[in-house]
From TrEMBL:
It comes from Parendozoicomonas haliclonae. It comes from the Bacteria. InterPro entries: Peptidase_S8/S53_dom_sf (IPR036852). Residues 1-21 form the signal peptide. This is Subtilase family protein. GO terms for molecular function: serine-type endopeptidase activity. The keyword S-adenosyl-L-methionine does not apply. Keywords: Signal. One of its GO terms (biological process) is proteolysis.
Amino acid sequence: MRQLLLFLICSISLVLSSLSAASTEPQYKVAILDRFFPPAEGFSSEEERSHHLALYGLDDLDNDSEAEPIYHGDLVRMLAATQQVTFINYPIHHNQNPMGDILANLQKINARMATSPVDALVLSWESSTLISTFPQPLKREHAALYKEKVRQMGESSPIWRDTWLIIKELEKLAETGVAVYTIAGNGGRRMINTFSLANGVITVGAVEEELQHYVANNVFVDTYARAAYLLKRIDNEAGQPLGYDLDADNCVDIPLARLTGAGQQSRDAYPKTYWKVLKGSSFAAPAALKAALAGNKAEPCS
């Protein structure tokens, strides 16, 4: 009995020590502007749901001929996730101009900073143009001239007008100390994401040399991170599939229950490694943010 009591006391002490250590870790609030499932506007019918999934969902993982209910923003969130981060989703609607939606969401975030501040923002979207749009050679010290060019483009184009206003909102956030992450863009060497012109914004490109033809790389790219990901199936000790690992940490990021087949398919329906590589600077930006917030510290699977 005395040994059991000592064991319980030691176990409780270890748990309390672990909780105390965890509580000393800094905690962060991160805003993500993107498309998430389910969409904020919902679905009016099953037909609309299927059409929406075909447009925005992850490819079919469980071989039931239907795209998975996992959108771009859901993947971005998975790649940025750590135990230290709480996310606030700001959805981009499917039936609206994305630039207008991004602008409206940024205005909300800025307006709420006094009462509901965030520590970081991930904007894995782009408003890109040819580098040749601006005087050559491209130089960081000429950013103000390039932004003025974007403003002028906005005089005849609503999309570029929204882009210029987005740049201003991003700068406003960065000025308050928010770590703002955006992407280099996926237009290749000759393109530039004009969001990267914003003062204080961190622009992320691809670390993989194989993606240099696809992901933009110019003087406004601040850092690089992994941009290509291969979904790998995770099994339990009995060899039964549990879900898919996205970022190679051997943890389940996408449980089978989240798929359209709800995990009811036979084992053979789930490929060990999914054939299609997910790639783009959209995925490099959240990876860079995660590295900045949590470093390379390994975390236990949740």
